[in-house]
Amino acid sequence: MFRYVHYEVMCGILAVCAAAVSAGVVFGVKGAPETPRGVAHAVAFGLLLLAGGAGFGIVSVSRLKWFGEGRDFDKAVPLDETGAVLPTQGEQYRNCVNVYLFVFLVAYALGGGLLWERGLALSPLFLAAVWLARGWWVARWERCHGLLLWNGRARARLPEGDQDLYSSIR
Q1: Using one digit for the tens of pLDDT, what is the confidence trace for 37-89?
Q2: Which residues does 78 contact at the CB level (< 8 Å), separation at least 6?
Q3: How far apart, in whole angstroms, are the C-alpha atoms of residue 65 and residue 161?
Q4: How would you label 16-47 residue by residue, b for 16+ Cβ within 10 Å and e otherwise?
Q5: Could you give the 3-state DSSP secondary structure of residue 79?
Q6: For residues 93 and 85, is the Cβ–Cβ distance under 8 A?
Q7: CA distance 101 to 15
Q8: In what order do the strands lie in the sheet with 2-3?
Q9: Are 131 and 57 in contact (CB under 8 A)?
Q10: In this structure, what DSSP letter does residue 145 have?
Q11: Closest Cα to residue 92, out of 100, 78, 82, 102?
Q12: What are phi and psi of 159, to 5 degrees?
C-alpha cells in the first residue's frame, strides 16, 4: 500500500524527469524548436497548457458525479490496526516509484520529439501538472478531514473484501 498523495507527487516528479531526459536528447540531436512568432508566444502557450492540465487534475479529484474521485475519498474504509496493514516508512516510498511509467513517458516523448515535432519532447510536463495538482488537492482534503488516504491492496486480509482505498488517522 502507498499514500495516495505520495503516489500522485511521485508520478509528477517522474514526468518532469522524463521531460528533462527526452528534451535533452531531442534538443541535442535536432536542436531547439524554432518559434516563428517569438519565444513569448511559445512560453505563453506552454503556461496555458500547464494551467489547463492543472485544472483538469483538480476536476478529476473533485466531487463531480461522473468525473471526479472525491466522493470515493469519503467512502474510504478506515484502518484500525495500521501496523499490520501499512508498509514501513522506506517501503511506502519505494512502492510509489513507477518505473514502467517513467520508461513509457520517456519513450513516447522521445518518439514524438525525434519522429514528429521537437516540442513533443516536453509533453510529459502536461501530465506532471495534472498529477501535481491532484496531489495538492488530495493533500488539502487530507488536512481538512484529518485523515490519510492509502491506495493499493492491503497485506493483511481485511473484512471489507475487495477494496482499494483506505484511510487512517493522521
Answers
A1: 777 887 888 899 899 999 988 888 888 777 777 777 777 777 665 555 555 56
A2: 166, 167, 168
A3: 25
A4: bebbbbbbebbbeeeeebeeeeeeeeeeeeee
A5: coil
A6: no
A7: 8
A8: 2-3, 147-151, 165-169, 77-78
A9: yes
A10: H
A11: 82
A12: -65, -20
How many residues appear in the chain? 170
Which residue stretches of the chain are H helix?
4-30, 39-60, 70-74, 82-85, 89-96, 99-115, 124-145
Q: DSSP assignment, residue 32? A: P
- What is the distance between the terminal CA atoms of the chain, rounded to a whole angstrom? 16
Q: Which amino acid is at 147?
A: L
124: amino acid identity, one letter: P
The grid coordinates listed for 159 are: 473484512
For the question of whether the overall pTM of this predicted structure is more than 0.85, the answer is no
Looking at residue 77, its amino acid is: V
